[in-house]
Specification:
Number of domains: 1
Structural class: alpha+beta
Number of strands: 9
Strand content: 25-35%
Distance between the termini: 66 Å
Length: 210
Amino acid sequence: MTSLRTNAYRLSVMTASVIGFLGAALPAANAQQQQQQLPQGWFKACSKQEDVDICNVQNITTAGNGQLVTGISLIDLRGKVNRKVFQVTVPTGRLVPPGIGLQIDGGKAQKLDYVICFPDRCVAEVPMTDQLVASFKKGSDLTLTSINFQNQPNPIKVSLQGFSGAFDGPPLKQSDIEDRQKKLQDFVTKNNEDFAKKLKEEQDKAKAAN
């Protein structure tokens, strides 16, 4: 039983890591192009790992420079292990004890405790209950509030429009997911190369000035 629980937890965290990839920070000059490549609004992606079927209903919010602001995941694991979790991913530099506040349409806030932090993001989660899903389907907006290292709240409002269709509808085709990931990976690689080129040019200018 412990092994199954560990595998379920590891798989759900692996699923959350997709958020980190999609929310990679990119130069502001190319933010608009990046936004066109990222899936907008609510979408569902399904895959299979270790005899476990994984479906993840997601919503990713990025800043003007392309950096991850908030990633939302409703993860359903079925098969050898069964687990349903609701996860929220935010950048690092957050106070851990307060967790993340989840509020739907101005209702009572629910606390989500952080479960793990990576170098570039932290993940909080609670069980994904039928009641939580139903409240999402009935709601108009949800507000997620984390507390930054300056002890200031950072509320992020996310529209629930399109949630029901994504949750109950078919997932994106695997080919579409792979195509998005490849385009984004190529885009990140190109921007890294451009950044390295510009950095070298600046260094050469500095040497010449001296």
